[in-house]
Design a protein that fits this description.
Chain A: InterPro entries: ABC-4/HrtB_transporter, ABC3_permease_C, MacB_PCD. Chain A: Residues 261-370 form the ABC3 transporter permease C-terminal domain. The complex is a heterodimer. By secondary structure, chain A is α+β, with helices and mostly antiparallel strands. Chain A has two domains: 3-43 and 254-374, no CATH class; 73-210, no CATH class. Chain A contains eleven helices and twelve strands. In chain A, a hairpin with a 2-residue loop joins β7 (149-152) and β8. In chain A, α10 (299-328) runs antiparallel to α11. Chain B is built from six helices and eleven strands. In chain B, α3 (106-116) crosses α4 (121-134), α3 packs parallel to α5 (150-162) and α5 (150-162) runs parallel beside α6 (180-197). The chains are: A alpha+beta, B alpha/beta. At the A-B interface, α1 and α9 of A face α2 and α3 of B. The structure holds adenosine-5'-triphosphate and magnesium ion. Residues 48-49 of chain B line the site of magnesium ion.
Chain lengths: 376, 232
């Protein structure tokens, strides 16, 4: 006969209400983890979009995402000539803010060369850029529709295609355009000071790009190619793997620690709350526990009663919380990625928390004197 | 004469030491036989509850010798390590307030004891129901304690005390919370149990209304047992 379950059923309303409250807390924990996973995924999506195997950036930097990088545009031709390189393309990256129907929209603009690596490899709807001017492929996250027109700088662009889930590490949606459009846009937006400088020939911005991405011929090792690129002093090179782990350590690391810390605090709070609830539930049953002991119930029956209630509370709250977050994932401004492995891991953590939290109640219950069942 | 179900020799209990020492019981000798309903009477603080709790293995004695149902359980120390098991096997408790589990139905409250004793579910249910029928509250099997009257709840509590067939039934002021009519019904039930099951029923009471339903009356005064009065 399960006493824990019957006691819960007896005060189902109170129990469910408590579990729902707790589920919101655990839901926040789950969404923190989901936000972190989303962050990692978003950061990698941008680096993975060109399907490159080699990144060539400015010497002494770890660009183009972790650090600023500028290299001459003609680097691309030099890289393309290397033995083992199948194709290479120059890319630029810039953030800009535009206004769409009066509301601000921040874009992360990727300029790339047509028919060379650097553009989006997966278009969700519409088509890739085909004309060399004034076409845009944007991420769905912008809310822009196919065929929609957008004024950027001095030109009007048309949305011809859309990607799915491509944002920069700050969560801004990505927009692709041709390299020459991107460079003109940059030049326009950098303002008079830069233009004057350029006119004096000091910083020929329009001849610079942020990186060159390359694909490698079969049978060639990207790491070896990176080695040989590094012999040019003004260049640095990273394989795709290096680029990804760099992104994770530099761009995402702080967020990871931040979110990790926050998650730990929330889990600690959850533990305290569960412990308090279970402790109170146990105190409320003091007389029943004393009676049970008096009529001969062993400690394991008493401890089991409390532990089971703690697990039931945590379990119900966890399932509710995870369901809520999964349903609400689309509402978050940044991507919330709920991975089954994380759900499984968190369920183990919640299990542990419930056991730990029940210990206070169990300790109290085991100390209850059976004589307390007697008298008034 | 048969062996007594409860035999106490020199049972003593004191609380505290030195200046604060209270001798709640001093060298109590007592024999209680099967089939009898025994009353423990005395002024407040005279040691009635203490004595009942010693017999019930709830309180540790300070000294003495105690035989319950043929087994020497205390001889200067407990001879059983697991006193809860001892209580489960040998003793049924009835409290002043029924102490039923509010989250269990009347029948489940009786089943708890059988569950602890390891009875399988079906037999448990059958036994609990027949006990409720015996105590004339069979129709209340599904009711929660909050839905029962005081007298009904006390009868369920008696059913629980009887569930595991204990030969010793201890009741501390079982009728204090009941009116005289219901108190009489409860006492008659306890007499019936003692007679039917060959049990010894020990009742602590202040209640004059139930005196005529006791077979033997033991009076306590400042922890000392007076000679018993047999009733007819
Ligand atoms: N846990 C305890 N600690 C200290 N002294 C106690 C304790 N329990 C009982 N006593 C003392 O032992 C004596 C006997 O108490 P007991 O409860 O047995 O009396 P009683 O006859 O049941 O009284 P009442 O009719 O009021 O219930 C009293 O003086 C009481 O103060
Ligand atoms: Mg008393």
């Amino acid at each position: 006969m399960n006493l824990a379950l019957r006691d819960i059923r007896h005060r189902a309303g109170r129990f469910v209400l408590t579990a729902v409250g707790l589920s919101l807390l655990l839901g926040v924990v789950m969404s923190m983890i989901g936000i972190y996973r989303g962050l990692v995924d978003d950061a990698l999506a941008l680096a993975r979009a060109p399907a490159a195997e080699l990144w060539v950036v400015e010497g002494g930097t770890r660009g183009p995402f972790a650090e600023a990088s500028r290299i001459p545009r003609d680097t691309r031709a030099a890289i393309a000539r290397l033995d083992g390189v199948a194709a290479a393309g120059a890319v630029t990256y810039q953030s800009l803010q535009v206004s769409v129907d009066g509301r601000p929209l921040r874009l992360f603009v990727v300029g790339h060369e047509l028919d060379r690596p650097g553009g989006p490899t997966a278009i969700a709807d519409g088509r890739a850029i085909e004309r060399s001017h004034f076409e845009l492929v944007v991420d769905r996250r912008t809310g822009l529709k196919l065929g929609e027109r957008l004024r950027l700088g001095t030109d009007t662009f048309t949305v011809v295609g859309r990607t799915k889930g491509q944002v920069d590490s700050a969560g801004n949606a990505v927009a692709y355009m041709t390299l020459s459009d991107a460079q003109k846009l940059q030049f326009t937006l950098e303002g008079a000071a830069a233009r004057n400088q350029a006119a004096r020939g000091e910083s020929p911005n329009r001849q610079q790009v942020n990186a060159v991405v390359a694909r490698v011929k079969p049978g060639h090792d990207p790491d070896e190619l990176a080695q040989s690129v590094r012999r040019w002093k003004h260049l640095a090179a990273l394989s795709q793997d290096q680029q990804e782990s760099l992104l994770l350590t530099s761009v995402v690391e702080k967020a990871r620690r931040q979110i990790g810390l926050f998650t730990a605090v929330l889990l600690a709070v959850s533990t305290v709350i569960i412990a308090l609830i279970i402790y109170t539930m146990t105190m409320d049953k003091m007389r029943e526990i004393a009676t049970l002991k008096l009529i001969g119930a062993p400690d394991r029956t008493i401890a089991g009663l409390i532990l089971q209630q703690s697990l039931a509370l945590g379990g119900l709250a966890f399932v509710t919380g995870t369901t809520l977050v999964t349903l609400a994932a689309g509402v978050f401004p940044r991507r919330v990625l709920i991975l089954p492995a994380d759900v499984a891991a968190l369920s183990l953590v919640v299990l542990t928390i419930c056991v730990v939290a029940s210990l206070f109640g169990v300790r109290y219950a085991l100390r209850v004197d059976p004589a307390r069942a007697l008298g008034g | 004469m048969t062996h007594p179900l409860i035999r106490l020799r020199g049972m003593a209990k004191h609380y505290g030491e030195g200046a604060t020492r209270v001798d709640a019981l001093r060298a109590v000798d007592m024999d209680i036989h099967a089939g009898s309903v025994v009353g423990l009477l005395g002024p407040s603080g005279s040691g009635k509850s203490t004595l009942l709790n010693l017999i019930g293995a709830i309180t540790d004695p300070s000294g003495g010798h105690m035989i319950l149902d043929g087994e020497t359980v205390y001889d200067g120390r407990w001879l059983r390590r697991d006193l809860r098991r001892l209580r489960l096997e040998k003793i049924g408790f009835i409290f002043q307030f029924h102490n039923l589990m509010p989250f269990l139905s009347a029948r489940e409250n009786v089943e708890v004891v059988l569950d602890l004793a390891g009875w399988p579910a079906a037999k448990r249910r059958e036994r609990a129901q027949s006990l409720l029928d015996y105590l004339q509250v069979g129709d209340k099997a599904q009711a929660k304690p909050a839905q029962l009257s005081g007298g009904q709840a006390q009868r369920i509590a008696i059913a629980r005390a009887l569930a595991n067939n204990p030969r010793i039934i201890l009741a501390d002021e079982p009728t204090a919370a009941l009116d005289s009519e219901r108190a009489a019904i409860v006492m008659d039930l306890l007499r019936k149990v003692a007679a039917d099951q060959g049990a010894a029923v020990v009742v602590v009471t202040h209640d004059d209304k139930i005196m005529n339903r006791l077979d033997v009356i033991h009076r306590l005064r400042e922890g000392v047992l007076q000679s018993p009065e047999e009733r007819t």
